[in-house]
Amino acid sequence: MITETRDHKQIDSQYLNSNDFESLMRYFNGLSNETKRRFGPHLFDQQSVMDFYENGDQNRGFLAIDTKTNAIISYAIIKQGFQSRLQKYGLKLDNQTDCTFAPSVADMWQGIGVGIAMLHFIISEIQEIGINRIILWGGVQSNNVHAKNHYLKAGFKVLGYFEYHGQNEDMILELKV
Ligand SMILES: CC(C)(COP(=O)(O)OP(=O)(O)OC[C@H]1O[C@@H](n2cnc3c(N)ncnc32)[C@H](O)[C@@H]1OP(=O)(O)O)[C@@H](O)C(=O)NCCC(=O)NCCS
């Protein structure tokens, strides 16, 4: 799906395919340590990424591509499956209708609407397969103000808090039918 960033660059949101793995490695290599620290659903080497998708048929990868250079500028994961810490909220979690979500945007592309464009694309795709709630995979660090604003703006609500290298917040987005 082609959309424009706030500064009028064209990006194409799409599914990750196995032939994207090499350019995904270039994307990871270009991420700052700070972005890597905040986004860690799997290790960043090619074998770990391949294992992640080969052994987890519940894992779906999504990309945004800069249409000018064909470089990956955003990578996000949707997983149907849950972390045990979410049980404390008393949600009735269902692999068919709930998922967890981990997004990342290349440092130079953050703050211009790429994350929101990707989220809109992902929502339209996962609604097709019956998913109606998105929960943050690893929560969000309470000091990650940018990401928190991004999620709140997208309609996520805070579920609660947990400690892991400091305070983190669990958030959930109920998708409208
Ligand atoms: C979190 C992340 C995925 C958001 O994507 P993004 O493309 O930067 O976000 P967007 O540009 O779509 O921002 C949407 C909203 O976020 C907020 N936001 C954007 N830039 C911000 C900034 N510099 N400071 C505070 N809030 C900001 C605003 O509310 C913005 O709304 P607006 O469009 O009305 O200004 C991305 O910044 C990222 O990869 N960060 C590093 C890794 C990370 O933190 N991942 C999430 C782990 S939980």
Which range does the strand content fall in?
25-35%
Attached small molecules: coenzyme A
Q: Count helical runs.
A: 5
Question: Would you identify the CATH architecture?
Answer: 3-Layer(aba) Sandwich
CATH topology: Aminopeptidase
Uncertain ranges:
none
The CA-CA distance between the termini, in Å, is 21 Å
Shape designation: globular
Structural class: alpha+beta
- Tell how many strands the DSSP assignment holds: 9
Number of domains: 1
In this structure, how is the largest beta sheet organized? 9 strands, mixed
CATH class membership = Alpha Beta
Q: What is the N-to-C order of secondary-structure elements (H for helix, E for strand)? A: EEHHHEEEHEEHEE
The average pLDDT score comes to 94
**Could you give me the name of the CATH homologous superfamily?**
Gcn5-related N-acetyltransferase (GNAT)
Q: How much is the radius of gyration in Å?
A: 15 Å
Please give the share of residues in helix. 25-40%
Can you describe what's shown?
Strand 5, helix 4 (114-128) and strand 6 (133-136) form a beta-alpha-beta unit. With 177 residues, the protein is of the alpha+beta class. The longest helix is centred in the C-terminal third of the chain and has 15 residues, at 114-128. It has a single domain, classed as Aminopeptidase (3-Layer(aba) Sandwich), CATH 3.40.630. The chain has 5 helices and 9 strands. The protein is globular. Strands 1, 2, 3, 4, 5, 6, 7, 8 and 9 form a 9-stranded mixed beta sheet that branches. The structure holds coenzyme A. Residues 35, 38-39, 103-105, 110-116, 136, 140, 144-147, 149-150, 153 line the site of coenzyme A (COA).
